[in-house]
Amino acid sequence: MKAEADAVAMDVRDHDYVPRVMPHFLAWKEQYFPTESNRLRWMLERKLKMTLMAVIQARLASKGSGYGDDLLGLMLQACFMTEQGEKRDELTLTMDEIIDEYKTFFFAGHETTSHLLTWTMFWLSVYPEWQERLRAEVLRECRKANPTADMLSKLKRDDNGAP
User: Fold this and answer.
1) Which residues lie below 8 Å from residue 80, measured CB to CB, with a gap of 6+?
2) pLDDT at residue 1, as a whole number
3) Residues of the domain holding 21
4) ∠ CA 95-39-36 to the nearest 5 degrees?
5) How many distinct structural domains can be found in the chain?
């Protein structure tokens, strides 16, 4: 009987089971085991979630004066409206969904802005004549003050040519 069982039993060393399963196990381990980097990531996620929850709760508590005119305020206002524009008593999204949406917009905007600034600095370094034109225009419009949104909206390219 033991000989029959040995004949039927698969020896994993003779098959490709281990090479196929090991990468999945390692990926699972990297994501769920309490390694030092995972504990740090979990702590930061928890801290960010608590901070955003506090901001959202403060906005919800001040609903008499509106939810604010920024992205979060618009999201909260939309969560309390029906498709016909009537007010609801409860949120249509859960707190976790609101936090996830807010984080998506925030980090996508941050990444887009950082890429824009990086490429702007790169191209200005490649074309120093454009860097000089821009510097002269900023000094003309802003003088020595820190630029404001109104000042930046006045910036126009001096000519229509491209570098």
Assistant:
1) 87, 88, 91, 92
2) 59
3) 2-126
4) 160
5) 1
